Amino acid sequence: MQVIAHRGASAYAPENTFPAFDLALAMEADALETDIRATRDGILVLLHDHRVERTTNGQGDIAELMWAEVQSLDAGSWFAPEFAGTRVPSLASFLARYAALLPLALEVKGEGIEHAVITALKAVREPREITITSFSFATLALIKRLQPTLRVGWLTRCFDEEAIARVRAIGGEQICPPAEQTTAARVTWAKERGLEVRAWGVRDEAAMISVVEAGADGMTVNFPNKLIACLRQRSLR
Ligand code: G3P
Ligand code: CA
Fold first, then answer.
1. Ligand 1 atom at shortest distance from the alpha carbon of 135
2. Which of 10, 64, 132, 178 has the smallest count of CB within 10 Å of its CB?
3. Is the C-beta atom of 200 inside 6 A of ligand 1?
């Protein structure tokens, strides 16, 4: 069971920032998950929403803001005063800081940035393991075509035979179903067809335990410390 810190240890620190990722490492998470979008001048940055209001003190759509403007935003105060001055990371700075340390799940959120993401990854020396994820199947199909050696996982909203077949058809490695659809039977289907199963949408500890009991290969979770404690309690770690 891979413990993947969702936007970092985002229950305890501002999502998609270095403090959240550093805390995930300190908690001994196995991997980090983050979200990639592009600024107006084409710099890849880590931001979940397409607008900056919820997680920074700025305004506007990230695709309309220049990197120089984004760099000046405070991405920490909204969460708690002690994180004031925390910045929105660029993908390049994130990769330089973490790629050699632990596996990464990089979700492509922005549209039309597939080539830029691949270029950024080519610049990384000796990454541990990188998996590109997306809700957009077209994005993953394009990435697999451009860079067949790059691992991909489809964030599907429907965990069924058709979804499994689609991932297999593009040579994908992983299917990422919603936690509530991650049942033992469906995990077995997917594994028998050669796919890893990595759940998303784990909102609370009940959902976390349900995914553990279903036998999935991993999950993204905002509270990696709780998942690690749960796995240790069950002698699964
Ligand atoms: O683990 C995948 C998950 O991050 C997808 O949902 O909205 O948190 O990006 P979201
Ligand atoms: Ca995500």
1. 5
2. 64
3. yes
Residues 145, 99: Cα–Cα separation, whole Å: 23
pLDDT band at 74 (very low <50, low <70, confident <90, very high): very high
Examine the residue annotation and report whether 115 is marked as an active-site residue of this protein: no
Beta-strand ranges (E) seen in the chain are 2-6, 31-38, 44-46, 104-108, 130-134, 151-155, 174-176, 196-199, 218-221
The reply to whether 35 falls in a domain is yes
Question: 154: Cβ below 6 Å to ligand 1?
Answer: no
Domain count for the chain: 1
Q: What is the pLDDT of residues 127-186, one digit of tens each?
A: 999 999 999 999 999 999 999 999 999 999 999 999 999 999 999 999 999 999 999 999
Task: List the CATH number of the domain containing 181.
Answer: 3.20.20.190
Task: Tell whether the model's pLDDT for residue 114 goes beyond 90.
Answer: yes
The predicted model scores a pTM of 0.98
Whether 60 is in a domain gets the answer: no
Name residue 134's beta-bridge partners: 154
Percent of the chain clearing pLDDT 90 (strictly above): 99
Average confidence (pLDDT) over 224-232: 98
155 Cβ below 6 A of ligand 1: yes
Ligand 2 centre distance from Cα of residue 94 (Å)? 15
